[in-house]
Amino acid sequence: MAVKAAAKKEIVRSSTPTYWAEACAHLAKKDRVMKRLIPQFGDACLESRGDAFVTLARSIVGQQISVKAAQSVWNRFEILPKRMTPASVLKLKVDDMRAAGLSARKVEYLVDLALHFSSGQIHVGQWDEMEDEAIIAELVAIRGIGRWTAEMFLMFHLMRPDVLPLDDVGLINGISLNYFSGEPVSRSDAREVAAAWHPWRSVATWYMWRSLEPIPVAY
């Protein structure tokens, strides 16, 4: 099984935003906290990896379990199909997916995700021209994908520069730490702080995360 897993290991291609340097210069000029934070992390920046279907499938697999557990389940799940595509997932047996460690609900979510991709209910080829909210609306129609997951997808896969995920605990905690001396922060407080970050709120959010956890995360 280990040999099979190695042979079918997912090929990961990382890419980074072309706008990062411009965004950092803008944020450092407009915001005193960003001016202090940005130099602390050198050339590190947001990274995207995988294709759209794989990225969303991994987000479903990882829901409500630890990062380590999610990776373990994914490793077992990804060797079931010849290639991790919507059509291949739809051909899998439920019992095999459950044996890989997926709950019955996550199996349902993954099948619904594959159905949305294979049926053309989501417009992957048009996303580059679509507004953020239009893409979010398509994604949250898929079972198991909420607004937060859709916003992470916009940031990490499509690399949209101006996403503000107000439901993200790390963002709120980062704003609390860096702007309010650790005091509780409301969504309206966060919006007010983030007004100075526009049109690079994705980049500023990334630095809020880094202020709490220096090691970057890629989805």
- Total domain count: 2
**Level-2 CATH architecture of the largest domain:** Orthogonal Bundle
Biggest beta sheet attributes? none
Principal-axis shape: elongated
- CATH level-four homologous superfamily name of the largest domain: Hypothetical protein, domain 2
| Helical content band | 55-70%
Q: Per CATH, what is the topology of the largest domain?
A: Endonuclease III, domain 1
Radius of gyration: 19 Å
Q: Tell me the structural class.
A: mainly alpha
Number of strands: 0
Count, helices: 13
Distance between the termini: 26 Å
Q: What is the C-level CATH assignment of the largest domain?
A: Mainly Alpha
Q: Give unreliable regions as ranges.
A: 1-13
Name the helix and strand elements from N-terminus to C-terminus, one letter apiece: HHHHHHHHHHHHH
Polypeptide structure, described:
This protein is mainly α and 219 residues long. The chain has two domains: 77 residues, Endonuclease Iii, domain 2; 105 residues, Hypothetical protein, domain 2 (Endonuclease III, domain 1, Orthogonal Bundle). 55% of the residues lie in helices and 0% in strands. It has 13 helices and no strands. Helix 4 runs antiparallel to helix 8, helix 9 packs across helix 10 and helix 11 crosses helix 13. The longest helix has 16 residues. The chain is elongated, with a radius of gyration of 19 Å. The chain starts with a helix and ends in a 7-residue tail after the last helix. 30% of the residues are buried.
